[in-house]
Amino acid sequence: YRSFDQIKDNRYDGMIITGAPVELHEFEDVDYWDELCRIMKWSTANVHSTLHICWGAQAGIFYHYGIQKHELPKKLSGVFNHDVLKPSSPLVRGFDDRFRAPHSRYTNVRAEDIEANPNLEIIAESDEAGVYMAKSTDSRNFFVFGHPEYDKYTLDAEYKRDVKAGKPINVPCNYYPADDPARDPLFRWRAHGYLLYTNWLNYYVFQDTP
Fold first, then answer.
1. What residues form DSSP beta bridges with 108?
2. Which residues carry out catalysis?
3. How many other CB atoms are found less than 10 A from the CB of residue 147?
4. In the prediction, which pLDDT does 16 show?
């Protein structure tokens, strides 16, 4: 690990801003919000392409474009079908027209807010889970509101953690066979998860960085 001050004079081809379990807090109430804003501002001049994941995507699209997150009636948890809206995008090259991906969050960003900004475009979304992938039209910022990086048992561990903590939580959708948490979950998003990161690294970092 290195602190930001140790790397702030460097320039980078790509950067990933990950999620964090702070989405029910207002952005400005997160302890490290000011530092994160400083990093995101720095990235506009020192990073060629930035990939934001889950709360990192909500934070990034709010910081750069002023798009607010909204609390959901209950936690969105499970594996959902998504449709590719822009098949010509290199980000989804090799994707099926419809693919699965996991989500785990209490808030979302609305499609109509993204569509209203001419500097943004939606790449894939779900009827159940909402926007999954969006990007800036200049391909400098990417926003993934789900969790393509989750392994087979991540949702399982989160669900059992929440149950143990006594939280009112539903069984993750489309995850356990017959929705039975006693059964081994199905891993049905691995290929598209790998493909998403591979496409970003290849087409928007490796091939595109000056």
1. 70
2. 54, 147, 149
3. 21
4. 97
